[in-house]
Amino acid sequence: MPLTRLADLTDPALCPCLVVKVGSSLLVGADGLRRDWIAGLVEEIAGCRARGQNVIIVSSGAIALGAARLSLDKGGRGSLADAQAAASVGQIALSGLWADLLGRHDITAAQLLLTLDDLEDRRRYLNATATLGRLIDAGAVPVINENDSVATHEIRFGDNDRLAARVAQAVQASAVLLLSDVDGLFDRDPADPAATLVREVRGVTHEIKAMASGGSSSGLGSGGMISKLQAAEIADMAGVSLAIVNGTHDRPIARAIDREVGTLFLPPEGKRRRQAARKAWLGGRMKLKGELVVDAGAAQALQGGSSLLAAGITTVRGAFQRGDPVGIVDGNGAVLAHGLSEYDADDCTKLIGKHSRQHEALLGYAPRSAVVHRNQLVLK
Question: Are the C-beta atoms of residues 9 and 18 closer than 8 Å to each other?
Fold first, then answer.
């Protein structure tokens, strides 16, 4: 039975596994670590556990904590080297904090540090999934953060919202709870007296995205709401609900539920589904090796469940190999699907717009049935 309201987040029957993401600004304030606030949140998490829910924490804060201890400028984000150094120091403090506070409720904490590549590479994704599953079975609460001490600009998530959604996808969690500094998604700039909180979203449409874009005058485009909508899309791909609530108050989960204040993202009516594990992983990927631009006929065929054939491809972009993940886009640049290419980029280029009966002569070897087979393709 799917979730229908914020209160369902703490119902073990409807939400047996919950991923809670906590941002840096909630953990570390102007006066340093907000220990009392964190202790209150841990008490709420302990309550979830006592009711029979499994909980995974995705925690930011390592860079902020480490920067304070090393006296680094700009909160440790003046350079990549500063951020990595700050994270190395801050991770010790952060993991110790969670272990201490959870331990006071007789809960064992387990630390996992992940990078984008850990969840983009299929084998490492499966390893992370297996580890998380075993920890949950053993009764521990995994505490996860991006491994900022080794991540670079090219391979990092850049925010823990999407990391939380990817983790939820990996463990097939029921829901993700993003603790933010706002009540949720507003239809315009929250400073506008006419702004209205959007309490429920079924499918992240273009209209929903416009509410968080720079062009919408929401003021949220560079402040994290776009990444939260991207996280909602990843969650939706795996059939996982996602909620944004205000985490700045004491015991924020209880406050959001008692007052029903927040935004709950649910899959569109009639389309709730949990993708096969491999397709959910593929659809949630953020690091693609190239793009295949297709014509209107191919776009329509994909929506009908067909494989992508070379005849419908108009442009090949990127340097990818057979088996690499690629995006499939229409002539306007809209992403239609993700898939694993059956050819490398050079061979795809040779096949642009060509009928399958021409492929062997062009390639010099027996062709495959499709450029991207429907079994290795997931619609966006």
Answer: yes
Determine the Cα–Cα distance for residues 299 and 311; give it in Å rounded to an integer.
12
**Token pair belonging to 295:** 């014509």
pLDDT at residue 13, as a whole number = 95
pLDDT at 219: 31
pLDDT at 268 (0 to 100): 63
CA 58 distance to own-chain centroid: 11
Domain with CATH 2.30.130.10 in the chain: 288-379
Beta bridge partners of 59: 22
The parts of the chain modelled with pLDDT lower than 70 are 1, 151-158, 213-223, 268-280, 283, 285-286
The single residue listed with the structure tokens 């609900």 is 241
CATH of domain 288-379: 2.30.130.10
CA angle (211, 378, 3) in 5-degree steps: 55
Q: Quick one: pLDDT at residue 276?
A: 59
* Six token digits for residue 8: 């369902």
pLDDT of residue 6: 95
Count Cβ atoms within 10 A of the Cβ of residue 130 and give its class: 0-12 exposed, 13-18 middle, 19 or more buried: exposed
The CATH label, of 3.40.1160.10, 3.20.20.10, 3.40.50.620, 2.40.160.60, for the domain at 6-278 is 3.40.1160.10
According to the model, what pLDDT value does residue 32 have? 77
